[in-house]
Amino acid sequence: MSRHRALLRNVVIGLEIHVQLLTRSKMFCGCSTQFGAPPNSQTCPVCLGLPGSLPVTNRRAIELGLRTALALHCDLGERSQFHRKNYYYPDIPKNYQISQYQYGVHPPLAVDGWMEIDIEGELRRMGIRRVHLEEDTGKLVHPEGADFSLVDYNRSGVPLMEVVTQPELRSPAEARVFLNALRQILQYAEVSIGRMEEGAMRCDANVSLRGPDGALGTRTEIKNLNSVRAVERALAFEAQRQAEVLAAGGVVVQETRHWDERLGVTFGSRGKEEAHDYRYFPEPDLAPIRVDAAWVRDVAGSLPEMPEARARRFAAAYGLGEYEAGLLVATKSPADFYEAAVAAHANPKAIANWQLGDVAAYLNEHALEIEDLRSRPEHLAALVRLIDDGTISGRIAKEVLAEMLAGGEEPETIVGRRGWVQISDEDALREAISAVIASHPGPVADVRSGKEKAIGFLVGQVMKRTRGKANPGVVNRLLKQALG
Amino acid sequence: MRITHEVVDHVARLSRLDLTDEERRLFLDQLNTILSYFAKLDTLDTEGVAPTAQALAGENVFRADIVTPSLPVEEALSMAPESRDGHFVVPAVFEPDDPERTR
Lengths: 484, 103
Description:
The complex is a heterodimer of chains A (484) and B (103).
Chain A: H1 3-8, E1 11-20, E2 57-58, H2 59-71, E3 75-76, E4 79-80, E5 83-86, E6 96-99, E7 110-119, E8 122-135, E9 139-141, E10 148-152, E11 159-165, H3 172-188, E12 201-209, E13 220-225, H4 228-247, E14 256-260, E15 265-268, E16 281-282, E17 289-290, H5 293-302, H6 307-318, H7 322-329, H8 332-344, H9 348-365, H10 377-388, H11 394-407, H12 411-418, H13 426-439, H14 441-448, H15 454-465, H16 472-483
Parallel strand pairs in A: 13-14
Antiparallel strand pairs in A: 1-11, 1-12, 3-7, 4-17, 5-6, 5-16, 7-8, 8-11, 9-10, 12-13, 14-15
Chain B: H1 5-14, H2 21-42, E1 62-63, H3 73-77, E2 83-84, E3 87-91
């Protein structure tokens, strides 16, 4: 094994994830957070940093931070505090960003949590260093060829939450698994829509290679990662680049690098990197936040069950495989849909099969989410009940389901209108069975000579003759009688 | 702590200020005078006193998550030296991820 392959096995990755919170108004003022408004139409003296204006904290943003902190098993300090992060750039009209710095004496909202992720079937605990709140900055636009830039402050002051992991991820693929799991949790906790592609989650990644002596190597930070795929690709590229540098006897320079999605490379800024000196200090305009036990209890009580726990419960309570359970809980609404259906008709296995099979295929084909369906969970339950009580066959059920999903009708209505009620009447079936026996002497002989499997073919032929309406169980029994 | 010329230069650069040599000397003296007041605090015995981040007495001063009217765009832009298409105009800057910046 080459030296650089060996180095690649010792990748160390930490992530910093910025999350947009589901609040209506900004972090410190009442301006709307709605996307797509005309430039600078959602600003006020506070988020424009006008002299004399004073920020007031949005309670909902703090609560969403607390929900995340609890879902990530963090320690909630009794008191936390906002700080000013000072820098000069036109996207920040006050010349400081209100954020939360990690000081021992007045800490950020939450620290020292963990999240469990499934790495190839093995549950691993990933440390969460901290969860803190801050405000977003304005957006800069650079008209082509212009010697000026334009600023839109609609995003200025929009609540952001930052989740920082411990450097405990060991491959780009693990980073992907982590981000997907975090997104699930944020969606479950109703903290954020969590979609990186829509900018609701943005990620910076730190990566280094541990040397043969186990010591952490110099790390680089990659910015500008706007999709889970970009995170994985950028990390793979950067780890490879570092390994090549080291294998060639070079040194990795600690720097911020940027990801170019199109070229698939990271690049450093050749310009001299200014050492960051943000001169953090406590924000004197904002009172400290005290989170007492009663508040924590309230928030904890309002949190839904998290996906990992829910998948375990689905597997245990409904007799599902780990894989099926995992698919069902991947996002919250399909899992809710499933549970509502099971509550209406207690055949969890069959409901899971239909939901993960035909229903999922329909949603996929039409690019819909389950909540877009006109069919309710009770409709899926009713469909499975119709199969279970022998009213329709599984084959007919597929057609009923297709109509049900397209039109939103109740399955009973569709079955009645179409005359698809299953034939269980033995006299009605005998005619079809006799005809099938007469026209398939080969398989009939096989069954008679003891080849049990051949009976399946004959059952299929009867089903075909009755256009799927025959009750396969009854057909099977009658065929055996006739050939026995 | 004593403020040196290097510290003055560093803070000036962070604050985007061009200082003349005379100003550098002036601010060096002024900053050191100010810091000498704080040095007096260092003589106090603060053993057993909890660190405080700020002087406000209150805690948990919040507002509800309710949208209130923003400024009309014209008013928001009215104090800017220059505006265009509803935007504030600033000297050209490049995003950190813009390769232009490295030129």
